[in-house]
Amino acid sequence: MKPKIEICLQWLLMCCCTFVHGDRTIGAIFDDGTFLMEAAFSVAVTAASEGQENPFEAKVIRTSPGDLLEAEQAMCSLLENHIFGVFGPKTKGLIDHIQSIADVLELPQILTEPVETQNRNWSAVNLYPNHIAYSQVFADIVEMKGWEEFTIIYESSELLPYLGNVLGIEDLIAGDHILINVVQLPDGDDFRNELKTIKASGSLNYILDCSLKNLPLFLEQAQQVGIMSDDHSYIIMNPDFQTIDIDPYKHGGSNITGIRLFDPTLETITTFITSLNEKVKELSEEEIEDAVGENGLTLDLALIYDAVTLYTTALNAVGITEGANVTCEDSESWEVGSSLMNYVRTVEIDGLTGLVKFDEEGFRSDFEVDILEVMAHGLEKVGSWTGEDGYTETRTFIPPVEPEGSESMKGKHFIVLTALSAPYGMLKESSKTLEGNDRYEGFGIELIDELGKMNGFNYTFDIQEDGVYGSYNAKTGRWTGMMEKIMDGRADFAITDLTITAARQKAVDFTSPFMNLGITILYKKPTKQPPDLFSFISPFSLEVWGWLAGAFVGVSALLFVLGRMAPEEWQNPYPCIEEPETLDNQFTLANSFWFTLGSVLTQGSEIAPIAVSTRTAGSVWWFFTLIMVSSYTANLAAFLTVESKFYAIKSIQDLANNPYGVTYGAKAGGATFSFFKESDNLLYQKMYEYMDSHPELQTKTNDEGLERVKSDDENYAFLMESTSIEYMAERNCDIAQVGGLLDSKGYGIAMKKNSPYRQPMSESILQLQEQGVLTRMKDKWWKEKRGGGACADDDAGSGDAQPLVLANVGGVFIVLAAGSAMAVVCAFMEMLVDVWTISHKQKVSFRDELMAELRFIFSFSGDVKPVRHRESTGSGSGGSKGSKGSKKEEEERADDVESLKEEEIEEERDPSPTPRSEHSHHTCHSRRMSNVLQIAKSRKYSRGNL
Ligand code: GLU
């Protein structure tokens, strides 16, 4: 066939082309609005003219995109220049129109556009790969990947023919059932709704056919919607995929495959780019916006170059040197046009886009493409496709075994979601305009920075503008806020005061906690109370006062009993009388109370214990009172110096019972609110019901809660987490934590379920904890930065005096009890020894004597004790120590009485004051007097008793 055409052409040319002109003009109509096509065309024409006797001349007319009339005028004006053929235009509608004119005039039209309308009988030849072969490339890739389902996402219906074989893939893969979903992108630049629908359909594989302009936009939005994670795969059909910036998608985890028709690193390409850019500069007069970058050469530019090369090669080959002598006005055609066209279809060249040749139908179906994949290091050629061999894998890059631990994070880029919640994430205060991650600071920001350094990853912060951390919405069956974003893959990590809860743990993974806390109450500091008239009671708690009173009564009664038991305490009331008939005891019941009271009030009393037992009891009591009085005095001082405060609430019980009308709430949808909701504790349930029925008491943020607590307009308490209260109380001196913690939990970094990064991140957090870095960071952000420590002095004097409770002074009571017990033992010993001595001396039965003594002691019959065994009576009964009765002695005593009377008369005669040296004598005298009187009494008593 081809040789026949050639012979025919040679003949034709010999007949028709009898004279030779100078330049051969090739026309072009470009309507893409840039200088690039024109520049590429000119560069190609110049290159084709090199070494030619009759060089080619480029005649380009640029028209407004899509303007039919302009294009037609351009065509007519080109025809006036006797052009050898026309290139362009670019838009589908214009192509058809110009093609119809060219058809009539049989003027060759050379196209480089993805348009289906081609027929070998027409005068158009298209260098763009044929749509059937082109769609076969992707059908083969899908087959190689073994997809069982995929979604075709296309932008314009004009591109549908290029999907032909992909749509019919089921017929190609016999027996396999493949689920294909087709979605058209809307006009404009927001595809999120369609992407969300695709996501909701559960499809994980996508074939994307869209313009180069919309491709980066689409990928960016796919990332935002969360369909760009490890589970998702993409095949990009646009042949200019290699020209877009793939950096944001290198580490997203999704598999992205594309194609190219030329390798931008080839020398022919780089040389072409250089010439192209120079030409653009020349054409646009310093306007270099259209300059092509290193990898920026698009297929249409390379194709226009190849088209010019192909066509000029054909012209050179056939030797046509005179252009078409046709006009728009008459319908006469170019006699050589269709023959030339047929010849062009037989030519083969090795162009920038590989081998350019046409099949028998006149289509470019035999072309070669490279299959590319996005890797962490960039685009990598993983295979090639030819019309003959189909897809061949040439993967030279063997993906390394997925590293584990921190290695798996190295070099990766993550989206880290955070919220503007002080001090975890805050906007930096700076006079300069800050960009990117530089705009933020805080505990969470610094922690991510540390983790990034430790694990070698990069990150970009994304802010959760509404501050919603996330809770499960049973109605929609979905999570909200940050949780939703993590689950959807719209962010890789979430860090803020995000509490690890059981419910959240089911939906996402958390690292080990980096901070521990519990729920508590934020409320105004207590107000001052007016002085209390009875504040002297305050140093001891009522319980201690009760014990003190008990000890007083107990010890007094004990002294009374000990006094009766201890023989030493029964004293001769008349020291001058050697053998009294009765003995006196100072520890009467009243005296015992007086003695103990005297010591408690540190006043003392006349009573002085004599026996070991009473002295022991007395000493222990003195010790007890010493400690108690000192403690009382010390605490009283504290009570008098420290201002007493009024506490509207002191605990969660107070808040729940709400005696002073304190309203309360928590952060809506936060972990604190959930705690009350989930709790089965009746008190907390009651509080949940209260908060739930008062949505106006819930807040959007912790800061809002703080403002409401501080506000004088309402009496509001805010339930929140202790670490956040700590931060606020460092800076707001009028608020404080009230009561203890209701629970114990932690903050963690959230990430997608089963994330491989959980373990390295947790390990790093534990390391930072062990090295004390987290503590240092906490001190820095809590106590130092942004006004920390403002309330440090306030707190120093704010301690409240507390009444002493039994736990504070219980030890003294124990000492008192032990001492008293010892005193009792001593008293018994003393009594036994005395009884034994008497029974031995008086030769009476020990038992009888003991019984008599005990009977007397516990009869509590008064403070006078008759002497049972008096030696002078010589009888075996009724005496006591020192009472050796004899008649002689009786007489002596009678004499004593006489002499005492005489002394008395003497004293009456001489009323001068008794000198101090004689005091003892006088005392003895008075005693003797009273003794005399006592003798009379006791005799009566003795006789009566014995
Ligand atoms: N840390 C809480 C959360 O993760 C927010 C504050 C709160 O509920 O007290 O939801």
TrEMBL record:
What are the Ionotropic glutamate receptor C-terminal domain coordinates in residue numbering? Answer: 413-784
Signal peptide from the UniProt entry: 1-22
- Key words, A-Z: Cell membrane, Glycoprotein, Ion channel, Ion transport, Ligand-gated ion channel, Membrane, Postsynaptic cell membrane, Receptor, Signal, Synapse, Transmembrane, Transmembrane helix, Transport
Q: Where in the cell is it found?
A: Cell membrane; Postsynaptic cell membrane
- Renumbered to this chain, the Basic and acidic residues biased-composition regions fall at 886-902
Q: How does it sit in the membrane?
A: Multi-pass membrane protein
Return the annotated region ranges for Disordered.
866-946
Would I find Cell membrane among this entry's keywords? Answer: yes
Domain of life per record: Eukaryota
Matches recorded under CDD domains: PBP1_iGluR_Kainate
Q: Which InterPro entries match?
A: ANF_lig-bd_rcpt, Glu/Gly-bd, Iono_Glu_rcpt_met, Ionotropic_Glu_rcpt, Iontro_rcpt_C, Peripla_BP_I
The residue ranges of the Ionotropic glutamate receptor L-glutamate and glycine-binding domain are: 423-488
Where are the compositionally biased (Basic residues) regions? Answer: 937-946
Concerning its family, UniProt says: Belongs to the glutamate-gated ion channel (TC 1.A.10.1) family.
* Descriptive protein name: Uncharacterized protein
